[in-house]
Design a protein that fits this description.
Layout lengths: L8 H6 L13 H13 L4 E8 L2 E9 L11 H9 L3 E3 L12 H4 L6 E6 L8 E8 L7 H76 L3 H27 L4 E3 H13 L6 E8 L2 E4 H21 L7 E9 L4 E7 L16 H10 L5 E7 L1 E8 L4 E2 L1
Parallel strand pairs: 7-9
Antiparallel strand pairs: 1-2, 1-5, 3-4, 4-5, 6-8, 8-13, 9-10, 10-12, 11-12
Amino acid sequence: MNQSVPRSLDDCLITPVPRDRMAAPREATLDQIVGLAALLCEAPMSVLTLVGDDNPQGSSLGFGFAPHGVPSDMSLFAEAVQQGGALIVSDLTQDPRFNTLVCVTHAPFLRFYAGVPLEMSEEQDTGTLCVVGHSPRDITPVQRLALQSLARHASTELGLRRSRDAERAARMEVARLLSERNELLTRNDILRREADHRVKNSLQLVASMLGLQARRLSDVSAAKALEDAQQRIGGIAAVHEQLYRCSDTDLVEVGDFVEGLCAALAANRPANVDALRVQAEKLTLESSQAMNLGLLLSELVTNAFKHAYADGTHGDVRVVLTADDRWVSLVVSDDGAGVPPGFNPDGAAGLGMRLVRAVLSQFGGTIAAKTGAGASFTIKMPVALSTG
């Protein structure tokens, strides 16, 4: 099987083994390296062979061989790797190590071999770059240097390919993890929203039962206590209702949340409260922070409904929500009788103020009260937020 020596790189690039015969991934740069080896060493055939743990039989990228003709015998490969340097065999039929190899005694009837092991890292496959021919011969020192240089080039290219494969695998893994994360976040949000909805329904049922029980009691003070409890539970139910409605993520647009909550509370305002007026900045909080804010708002508004206007007076209750770089401020005010002289919310014994202080203590918030033309309560929450 006499092959002509390639005369140019174009010759090397038009006659490689067909790609569907290659077990190793083919790339244009490796094709060129294999072809250049044959061109520079004036050999009719050249082979790049790789052997790894996941491919112990080896895979070869060949130039100049007929289809199905790339030699599969690994003895020459093993000897070149074990020797560690260039392995030059001028006549394979005269070397007792190789003269019985199938590729020598049968097609493609190799006689000459010159191979150089690739300089691979420990985690990479083992490889060689070699040129072969059908006639006994040797290679010149320049050709030997060229073959060694091309082997180093092939080693570098294979290392880059391994790095690209690792980077591609890492990107795919990151994409997979991000997809799983987003799926888990979506599931968590659905569960949270469903929990808010179910809690709201349960609280509304409890509030209805308390209201029914209060109407049946003849003891006025006991009935009043049940009505107060009914209002508080109704307020908490309204908070969960707004959390369910306002966001499909773990972040809540608090302006919309406050407006919706106040609308729900206003539906049950007493006759002497003309309106519940709301002014709320656009800002975003985590749902847990919005929950705390909603509980405080519900308690203060409910207290204003009960205590602001008496003896035939009437007027509005106002809610103002603002924010700066450090604080979220919530102000609930009215034009009623105001707070009693010497009133201090930090020491007030009423259940409402105790509930407010309990919520504020969880995150270091503060409450202040002032009186004049009515009462005004200001709550400040030191929370991280995103204004918009």
